[in-house]
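We emphasize that the prediction below concerns an isolated chain of 375 residues; any contacts that depend on oligomerization or on bound cofactors are therefore not represented. The input was used exactly as deposited, without trimming of termini.
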Amino acid sequence: MEANIPNLSGEQMAKYRKSQNLLVTKKKPMFPIQEDLRDYLIEYNREQDLPISYRQLLRFQNSVPCYNADGEDTLWETVGYNAAEMEEINQGLRKVYAILKTDGQMSIVNHLYVDRIDYCTFGNSNPFRIRIVNSQNDNYDYYYIKSADASRVYGLELEHLLSPNRMHYLTSSNTLVEEHVVGIPGDIFIADWLQRSEINPVRMAKELIKFNERCFVRLLGDMRSYNFVVDITPDIEGFQIRIRCMDFDQQSYSGRKNFYFPQYFKENQDLAFYCLKHLTTESIYQYQLEEHALMVRRIQLIHYRLEALLDAMEKSTISKPEKVAELRESLAAHHGYPAFEQCQNMGQILRTSLRVMAERTPKPGDWDNDPTHLL
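Result of the prediction step, given as a token string:
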């Protein structure tokens, strides 16, 4: 999971990767926020002046492992700063929290304090996790400060516009601030919750189908189980379930079509088998159609804003030419839609993908009933 692995030694990292069964891949490059995207962020109040930057937080003097309540290493490092800087950093972090949560109402920060600053060197965004505590009742909250990456910003904004989830984030020059996404990490959910009697298997499988469809249509890649969370809400009968992405670094970057299907990742194979067990092909088709209809309705409501975002995306560099060529060809073949072959960048490919979704519906049988391809 991006943001959950510290700077381990070579031997420790090899052991961790083996234990987690992770593929060793090249790190995705960071893409700067270019002028058109910056204009979009300013227009829609995402860009704001913040009292502290990502670069300032990098000036920590020491770090120690961060352990959970059970004494287990969380694979984060809690960092400390020079005493002369600590007060300024704490005050700045409290103000950032107020800007993120209450649009800058500073009266709320008087009874808040920064309990901990954690850091992680694994992944693309190298995040800081800020733990904020209310001194009056000991309630706590988290938020994250990262190096701004255009891929991640596009992913966050597309999630906000096209999914049922609202994403609260801010940018300030090369700094990105994100609200904590609440839920059970997907890998923990699979291990500890998936087979519980409280979980309605049909509701769970339905949400998995809809999540899989959203990721593919809007080209969000790498949704392995440790890159999303499961939000469980008690309802009048049982629980409602929603899957929420929490890692957006791989928005429209990869050239591999299957990279945008959560169902194909080995880490998610238990979920794929779960759907095949509890849903018929007709039901899967129905839930795909439902998700397409919901996405089309969202597009209709935010049409001008989405157009502005896609215009900026078409002018941004967020992938490599060879990956663009690979993806447009595979999507053209997958959909039988030659217009993909005319796309020159990831923004145009995404626009075409959304157009195909609006014009067409998936056919029964698009979901492969043979589960062996997932192994």
